[in-house]
Amino acid sequence: MSPESTGQNEHYLRVFWRGFRTWRGNRPFWAGLFTMVGGLPIAYFPYANMHLGNVTLAMSTTAGAGSLIIGILLITLGLTMWFHHIVRVFAGVAAILLALISIPVANIGGFLIGFLFALLGGALSVSWAPGEPASEPELVPVGAAGEKSGESGPGTQKSGPEFHSTAAVPQQPEQYDTTVEVDGGRHRAG
């Protein structure tokens, strides 16, 4: 390859990271991540056994099935926020409600860890709004913007309409007279 070649110069990890950032920017990524992280302790703690020496502490309760269902639903809602961000408001409200229900059902919401993460993820999902796409400048024929398109005489021929960008036309700011009158007002120069 010559030094002027632009092909295949980027490392594949950089290309992957740029694509991931684009994907992440088009959806409520952090909302889905926090919601899924909140669902894990809610589903895990009722089935966990802690060992302290020879003593085993079982935290399972009679509502173990309810905790498992709430945790799995929170993980599902987090994935929904990622892959179906059209329903992000519904998923956010459902995550908030499930986080609140997990307090009495699932060991105080997974010892408040799962509750706080799920609540934060639901709030982020409800408040997320997609960005506006960058608008391209509109091309307008030269004569259509109120400007003269040139003198058309008998000897001139045009091959086609001339176009220019409306974004390239500089806007003239209004000019004001800065002298102070007796009444204290400023008057438009003109």
TrEMBL record:
Transmembrane segments annotated in the record for this chain: 28-45, 57-79, 86-105
Top-level division of the source organism's lineage: Bacteria
Region of interest (Disordered), ranges: 137-190
Biased composition (Polar residues): 168-178
Entry-linked InterPro entries: DUF6114 (IPR046096)
Keyword presence, Transmembrane: yes
Assigned keywords, A-Z: Membrane, Transmembrane, Transmembrane helix
Protein name (Swiss-Prot/TrEMBL): Integral membrane protein
